[in-house]
Design goal:
about 90 residues; mainly alpha; DNA Binding (I), subunit A; two-stranded antiparallel sheet; 3 helices; binds zinc ion
Length: about 90
Amino acid sequence: MSPKRRFKVHSRNTLFQRQKGLCFYCHRPVLKSELTIDHIIPLSKGGTHTMDNFVGSCAKCNVEKSSMDAEKFILAKSLSRLFSGD
Ligand SMILES: [Zn+2]
């Protein structure tokens, strides 16, 4: 097992606990094995590879968000929750 892989598993556990098992974006419960790690600020925009810049999301949100800024995506998610009454 490479150090990189170990770091990823550790990050996922930490994020899962920090978010109490919920997706950061849609707040729905997500299995730890399905939690994907996302950068709040993309590395391409100067984001760092640290826990401060990581959030855990479900696979659906990860795909939906794609390369959108986290800020925009959170806003879009909040609005859709508001209007769907979810
Ligand atoms: Zn989600």
